[in-house]
Amino acid sequence: MEIQGKGYLSPLTEEAKTSLWVYLKEWLCSTDAKRIGVLYLAFATFMGLVGGILSILIRAQLAAPGPSVIQDASFYNALPGFHATAMIFFFIIPAFTGAANFIVPIQIGAPDMAFPKLNLAAFWILPPSALVTFAGFFFNSLPEFGWTAYPPLSTHAYSPIWGADFWVMGLILVGVSSTMAAVNFLATVFNMRCKGMKFFQLPLFTWSVVVTSFLILAATPVLTSALLMLTFERLFPGVFFFFNPEGGGDPILYQHLFWFYSHPAVYIMILPGFGIISEVIPTFSRKHIFGYPLMAWSMIAIAVLGFLVWAHHMYTTGIALEVRVGFMFLTMLIAVPTGVKIFSWLGTMWGGSLRFDTPMLFAIGFIAMFTIGGLSGVVLASVSVDIQLHDTYYVVAHIHYVLVAGSMMTLFAGIYYWYPKITGKMYNEFWGKVHFWLTAIFINVTFFVQHWLGVQGMPRRYYDYDPDFALANMISSVGSFALFAAQLIFVWNLIHSWKHGEDAKANSWYGDGFHFEWRMPSPPDHHNFHEPPEWEPIIRHHGGTHAELWERDVDGYHG
Amino acid sequence: MRDFDPEATTTMRSPVKQPSLKGAGVLLAIVTVLLFPAVAFAIPGSGEFVSVFSESGREITHLYNIIAKICLVILVIVEGVLIFAILKFRRRDDDERPVQNHGNLRLEFGWTMGALLIQVYIGILTIDVMYSTEVIPDDVDMTVEAVARTWDWHFVYPDQGGLVHEDLVVPAHKTVKLEVTSQDVIHAIFIPELGVKIDAVPGRYNYWWFRADGPLGQVRVNDFATVSRPERILPQTRPDFLSRRGDATARAVTGLEQQVTFLGASPGRRVEPGAVSPYAGYNAKEYQGLCAELCGLGHWDMYFRAVVMTPSSFERWVHDMQTAVTEVDGEQAYLAECATCHGDAGQGIAENPSLVGSNIVNNPDHKEEHIEIVLMGRGAMPGFAATYNDAAVAAMVNHERVSWGNSGGEIDEDDVAALRESLGLSPFPAGGAEPVDTDDLLFQGERLYAACSSCHGADGVGPDFIPAIAGSELVLGDPADLAQVLIEGRDLDQWPGEKRPVARSMTDLQLASLLTYLRLSFGNDAGAVQPFEVEEIRRDLN
After folding, report:
1. Which of B500, B503, B511 is nearest to B535 (CA)?
2. Interface A:B, Cβ pairs < 8 A
3. DSSP state of A315
């Protein structure tokens, strides 16, 4: 059989043209950032489905009060933790890393990442670390302490199972992988920008990856050290007492270390999404981004402030009142740059010429629903209110509006947006729109009602609950099933269109794509550019006094 | 600025065709979907906050309502601008070329400052509420210690002679201070309707306070007169058709006003349909309490009742608990504590050992070992020495020894007391009181004695005309005599009529500490005195 493919998809050797096996090996060992990006995305899609199935199991059990689908409370208790682990560490973060791998070198006019082999190594740490993290499933030894793993519950005395040790080890490995990727991105963007690509000319998606990489680099070691301390305490019981009060340790210390990573992790999961939206909205509005410098600075502000707010996850642990006041104000400050971004996207759309293709629909849906997540974040920042809502379903609703209506919708926007570039084919627009509408509607059905459950006082991570809450839980469960089913349409659309879709133009979006990736064929060739590109700087007039019209088909490249 | 090239349009992927009717349909759908959350946010979100049955809870609810309304306004503005932009700026013609605008400094500065101001405003409102709901007031009426363990709560009432109980029972409209801690992993006490939540962390105490509303129309002032309930406004903005719980203000009831109907599924706590609350005989109101911090397998099943009684009912309850606790239902205690692991019928769940036909349970020679396991625990099993008194332990052990075909022969509470002594545990006879550690008594007693040392001397020997404590017959004799002297004072020849009733206003715990200190210091070696003994002595004196 003859393997064909255009651009970077084409086989590199004669041998690979005839043998699928050789072609596959070529992919799995490729140091091409684009191919590694696709590997990341494929892996993330798979793990996203795994995480989705886990969430379906959770919602199935919670659909009605009493033991129903899952008879074993112990198995149920393991599910929320693994759902979170799968979604955070193996779905969202790798998916953004994948998109960044593909797009960032192109956007800065570079042939590849700075360290291609490091790039490949960073990816190949992920699948084994997923196996290690989820090892408990194969040996029926599941840790039941959630993804937060607070000691003493996670110490040897209360979780004497080695599935927990594997879980901790797996997370340490993921940290190694994402640190390697972050170093690589920073080296790439700092050293390999083409002529004319000054820092404040960088496309905002690349900006977001830069800021995210700094976050990963600074935060991950803290998580790793906390997990190592936990491992020492688990493996040598009675020798190390970091977190065990019986030997002079402090269980709250772990929470400080954990949230010092895990709060910035929230921004690691959303900033690249902000970047994607800042690419999609200008393209489909035919306008340059509104307030570019403020957009870049607000991401930096979010990153810096993100390190100073971790204790807002710990308002009920008994931290002194004055300290919590400080953390409250810092937390509220984060809403300011976030609000600036929302307003700037609206400003970009204002006066534009909007076209509602699937990526734009996801971008608009993101703005509409992420705002709800942001505002419930303001509610939760207020200490007194948060104490009442802490560990209730209100927090669950908030985090899912931020991560599902936020990260996941931006991810969809990005994948639909760059799908023609990655595959050289157009996806099926009709099913893309169906996917959007089902996703947008059922996110609200699933998660909105959880706000109400939260203010009513239903705690999270409960196997069974007061029958008073039955109706709301049923609504939420039905919504989650439909939400999951809608994602199958997405996966089918991606696979089907890759084979049967019509060929994509170079500048697929009606010639409105602006950055380098839209000035090369779809899919791009190996090594991206045939000759070193040069970026003609955008001169950004402020105040709309020197208004020019949107130009399309930059450099006359319309493929 | 480049000129627009009209020829380029012909190279588009596909010409845009958006008939206005279809476009309007799509936009209508968008508007509906976007408005749905906004409307939902407005109705159930703002008024359904349930912490309205305590003063601090009402403040928190009020704060939430303000913030929710601010957020709702911002939400409506953002969604409104978004919808307007979608409607107004949709592409009507493929050749549209919008005018570029890279930013507007005044606008950007404006919304940054606006967002900042709103945040600061919310923050300042919150600080006010934080201070008034969190700082423990000076005039605490009562202290309760809430102790969590996997997966159960018990509440210790130091002011009531160290009473231990499975539910939080407090008088209404009194400032109650909670001292929250854990015996194993991190838990969190959570009573949604009272606005109470704080983590129970092993190795440290966290504090919270509340003044709960009790049954209505039954407020006791100065322990004498009963006046009608002061007016209070419950912050409720929800429409009537959404209200879930019945309106308690409409009824005037004596006896139990609101009963918690869901307490999880553990055999000892489950509320069967139509069951009568154990507090039905008191003028009280029950709120649901639970655990909010993931603590393992039984996290979802750590319910307790927070029972708020009128002060008179509370006194009666305390009295009932102190006198009636000796009659323990062994089966009930077994179901509450042991059945989670050993099974309803002693069959053993998972790897936990079965009690049916077990040697320890059936062999009369192993009676003591059996008691010891229940007192001290073994392996993963916790011990119950500190939470169950002799009678309760005996009832629990007997239930195991004679049920499910076992025939190990019964024991009695003296056996338990004897074993406690041989194990070096503090005595814990019937009466519901948890024994206080002697070291704790000595520590507190030493501090109390500081007030006595100016006359009696730091080493228990004062000036000649003051009776020495060291070696005193009164001190070494019956503690009841010594307690009487301290409570009532004593006439001495030197100062006729000059009685000094130093202990009259002391709590039982304080007096017990002082007695213990006197009897065990300065070379004295009479026994320690427990608070429950003081309580008995006081009862005899009256």
Report:
1. B511
2. 340
3. G
CA angle at A446 for the pair A442 and A448, rounded to the nearest 5°: 105
Evaluate if residue B220 carries a pLDDT over 70. Answer: no
* A448/B40 touch (CB, cutoff 8 Å), yes or no: yes
Cβ contact A452–B119 (<8 Å): no
ipTM: 0.91
Residue of A nearest to B242 (CA): A452
- Per-domain boundaries in chain A: 1-27, 31-531
pLDDT tens digits along B124-151: 999 999 999 999 999 899 999 999 988 8
A148-206 pLDDT, tens digit per residue, is 999 889 988 888 888 999 999 999 999 999 999 999 999 999 999 999 999 999 999 99
DSSP codes of every residue in B84-121:
HHHHHSB--STT--PBP----HHHHHHHHHHHHHHHHH
Alpha helix (H) residue ranges in B214-267: none
Contacting residues of A for B300, CB less than 8 Å apart: 73, 459, 461-465
Best to test chain A binding among B9, B13, B63, B90 (most A CBs inside 10 Å): B13
Tokens (6 digits) for B421: 């002594």
The minimum CA-CA distance between A4 and chain B, rounded to whole Å, is 24
Cβ–Cβ under 8 Å, residues A260 and A307: yes
Output the pLDDT for position A27: 92
What are the residues whose beta carbons fall under 8 Å from the beta carbon of A305, sequence distance 6 or more? Answer: A330, A333, A334, A337
Q: Is the dihedral of CA A149, A151, A153, A157 positive or negative?
A: positive
Please tell me whether residue B80 adopts helix, strand or coil conformation: helix
Assign a CATH topology to domain A31-531.
Cytochrome C Oxidase; Chain A (1.20.210)
Kindly report the average pLDDT of chain A as a whole number: 91
